[in-house]
Amino acid sequence: MKRNRSRLVDVGMGVVIAISVALGLASSKAGGAETEPALFQVERIGVMPFFKGSYGSDITSSITCPVCDLTFDPENLTPDCDRVLTGFAQDLFEVRYGDKVIPTLELMRAFRQMPKDEFKDTPLGLTQRLGKALSANAMILGTVWRYRDRRGGTRAVESPASVSFAVHLVEVETGNILWSKAFAETQQSLSENILKAPAFFARGAKWLTADELARFGMEEIFKAFPF
Fold first, then answer.
1. Is 15 a residue whose pLDDT tops 80?
2. pLDDT tens digits for 147-176?
3. Angle 183-36-93 (CA atoms, 0-180°, nearest 5)?
4. Smallest Cα–Cα separation from 214: which of 185, 173, 176?
5. Helix, strand, coil % (nearest 5) of the chain?
6. Measured between alpha carbons, how far is 79 from 111 in angstroms, rounded to an integer?
7. What is the pLDDT of residue 151?
8. Of the candidates 210, 152, 155, the residue with the CA atom closest to the CA atom of residue 184
9. What values do phi and psi take at 148, rounded to 5?
């Protein structure tokens, strides 16, 4: 009887262990599926000119509303901030994807020639149409709603640079937004936020211009790009 009981205990423990291992593997696979980026290959990609303005409470609402509904305070945006951000994004994507990236002149020529209606067209819709016209399978779409330059010099300022923008990856065929990331920062001194000391020194331990802060922001966003 003792031997039979011992065997039953051993068998029972074996079943428990087997079930635990199976559940563990299933949980691991499920967790991995949630964290892995969707399978998508960039074949030809373009960087859409950035749109000025925001709408709604989240970063994707601004790209699905009519262009005329985008709102911004002109005092919070430098005149050419959209062009500057577009250039930063173009540079970074050219480094990664090389000749898969549509040249700026080709893209801008097609964008200027494309008919537009700001009361009906959305940034997302325009991006998808332009991508199809250029035979791209992916497009980068960006919006900027704050781009305020510093007042003062590199060592002392009356007010620091402040920048807020978002970048989205659009699948041209479906119009799906495959990935989105935002950057929003008003530069602080080291004494104001000691937790950002590494970033403060990495940026030269000085007060940045809006262009410099935006460049750092674009690089941070690009580090998180999953494709």
1. no
2. 998 877 666 667 788 999 999 999 999 999
3. 45
4. 185
5. 45, 20, 35
6. 20
7. 77
8. 210
9. -105, 125
Phi-psi region of 26 (alpha: psi -120 to 50; beta: other; left: phi over 0): alpha
Rounded mean pLDDT of 111-135? 97
Q: Which two tokens stand for residue 84?
A: 């500057």
Is 40 within the bounds of a domain?
Answer: no
Instruction: Give the chain's largest Cα–Cα span.
Output: 90
Domain count, the chain: 2
- CA 10 – CA 14 distance, rounded (Å): 6
Q: Which of 146, 142, 178, 180 is nearest to 162 (CA)?
A: 146
What residue spans of the chain are helical by DSSP H? 2-35, 81-97, 104-113, 123-133, 197-202, 210-223
Tell me whether residue 15 is exposed, middle or buried, using C-beta atoms within 10 angstroms of its C-beta: 0 to 12, 13 to 18, 19 or more: exposed
Beta-bridge partners for 101: 45
The band of 58, judged by pLDDT with boundaries at 50, 70 and 90, is: confident
Residue with the two structure tokens 């922001």: 217
In a domain? residue 67: yes
Long-range residue pairs from 103-109, CB within 8 A, at least 24 positions apart, any chain:
104/47, 106/134, 107/46, 107/47, 107/48, 107/134, 108/49
On whether both 20 and 117 belong to a single domain, the answer is no
DSSP 3-state assignment of 66? coil
Do 59 and 144 sit in the same domain of this protein?
A: yes
Domain of residue 202, CATH code? 3.40.50.10610
**Mean of per-residue pLDDT scores for the chain:** 81
Domain that residue 2 falls in: 1-33
Asked whether 175 and 137 are in contact (CB, 8 A), the reply is no
